[in-house]
């Protein structure tokens, strides 16, 4: 565990709060120390208030901030004396604690202080750092973890038995710490939870954390990679989509299921004792919020949900206030053939679950090497899972986006209408798989909810492979936009070759038949029913001279979509067609082509752009937004429809 301290970088952060920001970020950079909002840090600073009175302020990490990206504004300034006073009370409810912290802050707009603020306050050191280090937890979470920790650290740390975070933990530390701390003490271990370090400077506190964690790593010895056997490369998309449907049913809403088959995940999933070791509990209690207490082993979602309901019934009976059961769907699925699958309301959430679990499985394996992984009793985990202050971390403001947890596939996604469709579906919360023959699609968006795959949709082998890849990333398929197409205009029938005709039919028609055929089994398993939006053309109702192959291919596609609507209605799949016209912000319409066509009709470019009944321009975005809406709740009762998006065309009307 190397220290990441760098003098040059550190010099950019001025003052106590500045250096607090710097080393907090250093901790946040190392994922084996803290993950996704875990851990917290503080500094105590003497300041004058507006009336010139001097007092000590605890700047402590605010809720909702990640150490990796924290800024000065992410620290809540709370009056230290008041927090220390609170630690002497015998009881303090959560709402009271939050109220006392919020009403004793210096800045009204500061975030709510960390639930561990009182604990930071009672530690008599200027800088305090707290992490959930993997190595420390691997040593702790063993049958004789406490003995190992005491033997490892001796007087350098004070050991606190497990107490639920919040006021009770702070109070317990306020009792034990002064009694057990010695001049040699540089840290504190909270058994089954994490570790603290302290110092007079940010650097000292940070480097003590690194040194303490390095000791735990040394005790664990070198990590032995567990061998994994490669899994069958056969397609698993139908099994995955069926699994995702079941998990979505248990969750009560569609979810993303991401499949991970990296060597570490596979080795863990294939371990003979995985069912025994993976179901003992999380590495540290606050992971329960994202991962639930235990993963699901295998694919019996109903069985998992039933066991979860029993766990809830058993432990909720003794809570102070009545609790409502959270959804009983698993967040981590471990399956010999699938590897490790993680579940979330969005691709980002599913990724966070994987980030946490990939550390958990390593920690479990290292503890196993040290005599056996042991987690806290289920009741302790339940208390944190159903702790209002923890749940508050998951509440996002506003309603969930329309396509939250759903997956859309868009063809021709690298440019024009397809690219705009990607944007419209992402904006509605869907994860999007974009296919395009142009490899630019792979770098269209750098975000976890977009997967761009270079794929020629007319290639009968590449297409199923791309769909398989998309389903492995997100778990299934809910919506498909058939957009990829070609428009080689300007050839009259008497000069139209068989080759050109066949090429246009191949891309605009045959490839879409293959796409419908390949995606049907997946759309059938979509939790809210599958939807298909077909990008047709004004040329279907109103063909133009010189575009025989294009017009015929799009007319056949529209007819194919109508038959699909009839055949798939019983499967809950809706399929509707859009007929755009004169969408000029696409790759085929360069400024020269536009100028040439405008001249051909005796119009200015501006007149030509708006050459429709409403005299409006029709953009890729207009078409994409309508394609997305067609897949949304407004059109829940519509299938087999053909809708123009052309500004009004006299020949169509
Ligand atoms: Zn903690």
Number of domains: 3
Spatial shape: elongated
Number of helices: 24
Extended strand count: 18
Query: The CATH topology of the largest domain is what?
Result: L-fuculose-1-phosphate Aldolase
Strand content: 5-15%
How far apart the termini lie comes to 71 Å
Strand order of the largest sheet: 3-2-1-4-7-6-5
Could you name the CATH class of the largest domain?
Alpha Beta
Overall structural class, as computed from helix and strand content, comes to alpha/beta
Query: Which whole number gives the mean pLDDT?
Result: 93
Low-pLDDT residue intervals, each spanning 5 or more residues: none
The named CATH superfamily of the largest domain: Class II aldolase/adducin N-terminal domain
- Distinct small molecules bound, one entry per kind: zinc ion
CATH architecture of the largest domain: 3-Layer(aba) Sandwich
Radius of gyration: 30 Å
Helix content: 40-55%
Task: Please explain how this structure is put together.
Strands 3-2-1-4-7-6-5 form a 7-stranded mixed sheet, sandwiched between helices. Strands 14-13-12-15-16-17-18 form a 7-stranded parallel sheet, with helices on both faces. The longest helix is centred in the C-terminal third of the chain and has 26 residues, at 498-523. The chain folds into 3 domains: 7-220, Class II aldolase/adducin N-terminal domain (L-fuculose-1-phosphate Aldolase), CATH 3.40.225; 238-388, 3-Layer(aba) Sandwich (L-fuculose-1-phosphate Aldolase), CATH 3.40.225.10; 407-583 and 618-645, 3-Layer(aba) Sandwich (Rossmann fold). It is of the alpha/beta class and 653 residues long. 41% of the residues lie in helices and 14% in strands. It has 24 helices and 18 strands. α6 packs across α9 (202-220) and α20 runs parallel beside α21. The structure holds zinc ion.
